[in-house]
Amino acid sequence: VPDGISSDIAMSNRFFCCVVICLIGVGHQDAVVTQFPRHRILGTRKELTLECSQNMNHISMYWYRQDPGYGLQLIYYSNGIRTIAKGDVPEGYRVSRSELKYFPLTLESASTNQTSVYFCASSDSTALQGHILSAQNRGEARREGTL
């Protein structure tokens, strides 16, 4: 292997970055869930906050991730202001819900195993929670983004 190629590979490995792509989703009755940033390149061991907001004052909000070849996995969910519960894969993340319309997700120290597609969702009542949570088992999704 030529020296130039070998050093390029080594440099790429040292400076591996995570990429975040968050897309805007539009839901039922003109409800809009917005994720920001749309995409992001981030070095490992850095903190990153993914913003999520919704315009319908929905009670429940959810953060999911989807790894290549797998279904949705619930990270965290909230059933109202300051009401937060862990999902299936909460390690390495934190959330807050100080206002009904915002539910930011923070990657505490970005790592290569957090390279994934991230989804934020909202629901106008907790009665839909069972249906939304079960979507992760069927791998259903309408919008996607990547970290």
From TrEMBL:
Any Pfam family: V-set
BP term (GO), one: immune system process
Lineage top rank: taxon: Eukaryota
GO cellular component, one term: plasma membrane
Keyword annotations from UniProtKB, A to Z: Immunity, Signal
Keyword Nucleotide-binding in record: no
Residues annotated as domain Immunoglobulin V-set: 46-124
Protein name (database record): Immunoglobulin V-set domain-containing protein
Provenance organism: Myotis lucifugus
Lineage: Eukaryota, Metazoa, Chordata, Craniata, Vertebrata
